[in-house]
Design a protein that fits this description.
alpha+beta, 2 domains, about 325 residues, Aminoglycoside 3'-phosphotransferase, Chain: A, domain 2, Phosphorylase Kinase, domain 1, five-stranded antiparallel sheet, three-stranded antiparallel sheet
Length: about 325
């Protein structure tokens, strides 16, 4: 059998379905139907039961989260569901009272963490997001930060620190991929140096707290005038400005959306203190995190975009180094 990363998208999903069905048995859902929702960093299936119930099943395919880190994610989701009015995916308990299963996958040659969550209705905000919706995103972000300020991790749970510029993930930036040139690697190294310096200054004066750490428009649903937030798989200990910078990365080049995000946040809690230079550096740092993730990803559709994604990422990072501003709308980017 060829390595998983060399399989087609369809073949990869076919190798994952038996694992998904085995995971459902632990929840007494063995007769439910599975419908693929996303096969990217993780793989998500919609679960429909004969009784009309609906859930979401997540297989952590590319994530390298430890059981203690996933336990922290589950515990925070439980606490948020209990303590706040936010709409979130609540983890379902299996028949033996567990929120997480570890199911062996033959194609990958390892166990995959599997979890089932309550269903969130609606559609992702995506590219259709409006300033009014981004103000609500800002309010939700501030509410998450306020809750995290007073919430303590339970025994047996842990979160990695976002003081690490690569967010606790292994570096793939020094590997020979055939896409990241020596010149491009120099650009990445310099951006990482600047991000590390800024984070060092910030963490010297602030106490980190749990963050979502992946609040972008495709991790947010809108339904009947209400926002729901999901995909807490990247949650970690960090500083509020980092969550805002991560969101800003996906909002460019729409300054009206970025301004609405900050406006909504300020309506609930004081904005964190930061300079424009620090903010731009953290936004650029997000570009390095995603580049590192893409280089190490096994999903066929993501590996297929490497020939244009990598040089485009380097072009954007070089522009940041030259002009102090991170942008996605630059001339000369390769089109897919």
């Amino acid at each position: 059998m060829p390595p998983f990363e060399h399989l087609s998208q369809r073949a990869q999903i076919g190798r994952l379905r038996p694992t998904a069905h085995e995971a459902l048995r632990a929840y007494g859902l063995q007769d439910a139907r599975l419908r693929l929702l996303n096969h990217g960093f993780n793989t998500i299936f919609r679960v429909d039961t004969a009784a009309g119930e609906r859930y979401a099943l997540r297989l952590n395919v590319n994530s390298r989260r430890s059981p203690a880190q996933i336990a922290a994610e589950m515990a925070w989701l439980d606490a948020l569901s209990r303590d706040t009015p936010l709409q979130l995916p609540t983890p379902l308990l299996s028949r033996d009272g567990q929120r997480l299963q570890h199911i062996w996958n033959e194609a990958l040659g390892r166990e995959l963490p599997a979890a089932v969550f309550s269903w969130l209705p609606g559609r992702v905000l995506g590219a259709r997001a409006t300033p009014a919706q981004l103000r609500e995103v800002g309010r939700v972000t501030a509410t998450l930060h306020q809750h995290a300020h007073t919430w303590a991790l339970p025994d047996g749970a842990e979160l990695h620190s976002l003081q690490d510029p690569l967010m606790g993930t292994p570096s793939h930036l020094d590997e020979d991929h055939g896409h990241l040139t020596p010149e491009g690697r120099k650009v990445v190294v310099e951006v990482l140096r600047r991000v590390n310096a800024e984070l060092g200054k910030l963490y010297a004066h602030e106490v980190p707290r749990p963050l979502h750490a992946d609040l972008h428009l495709w991790n947010l649903h809108w339904h009947a005038g209400r926002l729901s937030v999901f995909d807490f798989d990247d949650c970690a200990l960090g500083l509020p400005v980092q969550d805002l910078a991560i969101s800003a990365y996906y909002l460019r080049p729409k300054p009206e959306l970025e301004a609405a995000l900050l406006e909504g946040y300020a309506a609930v809690a004081p904005l964190p203190s930061f300079t424009p230079a620090t903010y731009e550096t953290l936004v650029a740092g997000r570009g390095v995190v995603l580049l590192n993730d893409v280089l190490g990803n096994t999903t066929a559709s993501i590996r297929a975009v490497l020939p244009r994604y990598v040089p485009n990422a380097i072009t954007k990072l070089r522009h940041f180094l030259d002009y102090g501003e991170f942008r996605h709308d630059l001339p000369g980017l390769l089109q897919g």
